[in-house]
Amino acid sequence: MEKQIKMSYMAASSLLLLLFFSGSPIQILGLGVGINYGQIANNLPSPSRVAYLLKSLNISRVKLYDADLNVLLAFSHTNVDFIIGLGNEYLPNMTDPIKARNWLQQRVQPHLPQTRITCITMGNEVFKTYDHQLWSNLLPAMQTVYNALVDLGLDKKVTVTSAHSLDILSISFPPSAGSFRQDLGEYLHGILNFHAEVKSPFLINAYPYFAYKDNPNEVPLDYVLFQSNQGTVDPITNLKYDNMLYAQVDAVYSAIKAMGHTDIEVRISETGWPSRGDDDEAGATPENAGLYNGNLLKRIEEKQSTPAKPNVPVDIYVFALFNENLKPGPASEGNYGLYYPNGTPVYNIGVQGYLPGMVYTSPSTKIALSVVSNVLFLVIAYLIFA
After folding, report:
1. Which of 78, 99, 230, 319 could crosslink 270 through cysteines, CB 3.0-4.6 Å?
2. For the structural domain made of 27-358, what CATH number should be given?
3. What residue ranges are annotated as transmembrane (predicted)?
């Protein structure tokens, strides 16, 4: 057995040296991109393993859709900035100051400062629900949670916002004519005043994929994939757009300006492209997903800005880290991931991270492989976190 362990260890060590000095399996991303960490699946790796994956990619900004205790504990002392979420179903309770304070004391405060929670999103795409009671609860919930943060002395560390779909726009082109839907005016006016007051960003979930899927014969694929194309020109400003995402962002800026605000930053809380879809979901392929996200990452690396906001680099959270096998809806919904749950990239965008493996052994080899696995894990962890 001792000889078997020694041989296995030597083989593993050689493999480890090959992995780290060949320069191919682990490439550091380091582009300042954020990632959405969705968990509507039953086959995802543990949060502690995900922490190693994101560290190997040098991703330090993560957006959750809840305040998952296991995730926040696993990322303790990792210097990752977290956006955490309160689902739409929580909004009515969060209008109650006592319930809002209790939630913060139970789900947020215990994790600070070892886990860096920087933002709370109140609901997600609330105006897509057409639930008018929910619409009415959104702003009071945002205000109540923010006031509770102030009472707890956390408002300088944690901000409050909400994420919206582009359905809130009635006009999105040309970008300079962007405007919000009239039926949302009374709600968005108060929300924008709140953002201006507390200096929090306005978040949008922007998906050029949807525009292409709905009109594949009219929307140029190169335009939505950041490929070389003739672009479009805003006839009012004469600004040229070579991709749809930036046009969408500037349309939101215009809509906000039309409501009297020029001091609110727009950030992209979700964008991505599915690698697989149903037969009626045009463009949902690994090739297109790779082009969209690969080209997007290059632009983030270059700190690009939109034509209408040349001094404000676009702030983006890509959707999503993993494919999620339990997401309802069309096939595309569960196939936005950059990675399969086993840590294999869904497509090649020029970056690759390391997801620590799980070892399953028979009793006869359990001791040897356990030693090898532990040594590999510790050495890799040291090299990644050193």
Report:
1. 319
2. 3.20.20.80
3. 367-385
